[in-house]
Structures are given as structure tokens and as C-alpha cells.
């Protein structure tokens, strides 16, 4: 439970659109992520708001290692 609380806190961003998407993602998908996907999510959260937003709105990301989590984030965005 502590990791979930930490993830929720880290999802609070300066960009409102990211706040909404990341909070929905945590509510809908976080509990089902495997270890690799949790690491991917942590890596994405380390990005700046603008870089993370750009990755979410792109059709394909340059970073293949985060594809599964980005696909989930994109479904939340729609």
C-alpha cells in the first residue's frame, strides 16, 4: 500500500493534463503492473512534464523499454 501512496504523490505534476492522466492510470492499472512495468512507470515519472506529455501523445515512442506502460497511459488519455 505504501508504494501506491508514493506513486499517487509522484503523479502530482505541474501540468493539469498529466495530473488527470496519471491519476487515472494509477487508479485503473497500477495494482496490476508487473515488476518490469513498475520500473518503466518509475522511469517515465522521472521525466520532465513536457517530455512525458510528448511521449504520451506520440503514436510511437522512441524508448522501446517503456512501450507497455505508454500504451496503457494512452488508453487512459482517450
UniProtKB/TrEMBL annotation:
Chief location of this protein within or outside the cell:
cytoplasm
| Keyword 4Fe-4S applies | no
Does the keyword section mention Chaperone? yes
**What InterPro entries would the database entry show?**
SDH, SDH_sf, SdhE_FAD_assembly_factor
Which GO CC terms are listed, alphabetically? cytoplasm
Sorted alphabetically, which keywords does the UniProt record give?
A: Chaperone, Cytoplasm
User: This protein's superkingdom?
Assistant: Bacteria
Q: Which GO terms describe its biological process?
A: succinate metabolic process
Q: Where in the cell is it found?
A: Cytoplasm
Database matches in Pfam families: Sdh5
Gene3D superfamilies named among the record's database cross-references: Flavinator of succinate dehydrogenase (1.10.150.250)
Family according to the record: Belongs to the SdhE FAD assembly factor family.
Which named protein is this? FAD assembly factor SdhE
Species source reads: Nitrosovibrio tenuis
Amino acid at each position: 500500500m505504501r508504494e501506491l501512496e508514493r506513486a499517487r504523490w509522484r503523479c502530482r505534476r505541474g501540468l493539469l493534463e498529466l495530473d488527470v492522466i496519471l491519476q487515472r492510470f494509477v487508479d485503473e492499472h497500477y495494482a496490476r503492473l508487473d515488476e518490469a512495468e513498475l520500473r518503466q512507470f518509475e522511469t517515465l515519472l522521472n521525466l520532465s512534464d513536457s517530455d512525458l506529455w510528448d511521449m504520451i501523445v506520440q503514436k510511437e515512442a522512441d524508448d522501446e523499454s517503456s512501450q507497455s506502460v505508454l500504451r496503457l497511459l494512452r488508453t487512459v488519455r482517450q
